[in-house]
Amino acid sequence: MKILTMILLGVSLLFGAVDINSASKKELSSLNGIGAKKAELIIAYRDANCFKNIDELILVKGIGKKIIDKNRANLSANNCK
Fold first, then answer.
1. Amino acid 13: pLDDT
2. What are the b/e assignments for 1-35, b being 16+ CB within 10 Å?
3. Is 34 or 2 the better-scoring residue by pLDDT?
4. In sequence order, which residues have a C-beta less than 8 Å from that of residue 7 and are 6 or more positions away?
5. Which CATH number is 10's domain given?
6. Are 78 and 17 in contact (CB under 8 A)?
7. What is the DSSP letter of 18?
8. Domain annotation covers residue 12
């Protein structure tokens, strides 16, 4: 079941970017260099702040420029909820 979930998330990345302002923990965890812990930190940050652009991910502890650059094509920062 876990493999199927990862395959489906991978396919979804081919057809659309992950919106860091609304993505689930599973969606965020599917990105390169982002595991469950970093996904939780991203969600905690966005609950307190809105990401105006994907470069603001660097404000999350453990997220560096390399991780952002690896995933840039698969990320978006749409309007906050």
1. 46
2. eeeeeeeebeeebeeebbbbeebeeebbbbbeebe
3. 34
4. none
5. 1.10.150.320
6. no
7. E
8. yes
pLDDT > 90: percent of the chain: 75
**Count of the separate structural domains present in the chain:** 1
pTM attached to this predicted model: 0.78
Per the listing, tokens 């749409």 go with: 78
Domain span at residue 25?
2-76
- Specify if 39 maps to a domain: yes
> Residue 5 corresponds to which tokens in the numbers above?
């979930």
The per-residue pLDDT for range 42-67, each reduced to its tens digit, is 999 999 999 999 999 999 999 999 99
Phi, psi of 19 (to 5 degrees): -85, 110
């991910």: which residue's tokens? 57
Asked if residue 81 is part of any domain, the answer here is no
